[in-house]
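G., the chain you wanted modeled:
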Amino acid sequence: MATEYGGGGDPVRSLALLWRTQDGPSSGRRGRSDLGVDRIVRAGIEIADADGLAALSMRKVADHLGVGTMSLYTYVPGKAELIDVMLDTAYGETARPEPGTTGWRDQVTRIARENWALYHRHPWMLQVATGRAVLGPNAIAKYDYELTALTGLGLTDVEVDAALSLVLGHAEAAARRAVEAMLVEQRSGMTDEQWWRAHAPLLGQLMDPQRYPTATRIGAAAGEAHGSALDPEHAFEFGLQRILDGIEALIAQR
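Predicted structure as tokens:
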């Protein structure tokens, strides 16, 4: 569940920060020469990476940088605008090899895995609802690059956009489940395998294989294969390939 919303601040100020049309002290105020939007944003990302988005505040960023809180407002209006720039900065991390060097399916697979890895590096991104995000240069460049993998295949522009959204949505959802599983393990002190081993005997007493034959058989097979009820990475890769199969079928229809 998202705890913050992209584009929740002043859109004019967010756009100025994202596109760096104003990177110096605002309103004519003099700021510290060693501060700037980039350094403040990097500190925000470091805090969110370490402790989650709930730990992020302008005061925490100021403490992290060893400056007074008010000095940050010379460069960044507030937390909402800071999150907008943090997101855009993270989007700039995805690798973008020269398009066209491999087939479209390999390119889209790489794109999906890049997004999966991005969410694992910055799990706090999953806490930001981006439906109304203010678009910065890295977000636009990422979108433009990823669309290219699906163009020239006979799909309409709307179909290209929908296909890419399907792939990226799957990567995000799968990463969310993977991150949640990691958090559960950290907070409980037990791996999935340990948890299921502890609960399996009781479940075995309560669950009648004669009444639930399919669930018993398939659940046992999946548990043996994954060491738990679910392997998030397997689910991601399996789902991705099935999505690509569907896009391939749509291309063939064209």
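Residues 157-188 form the longest helix (32 residues).

Shout if anything looks off.
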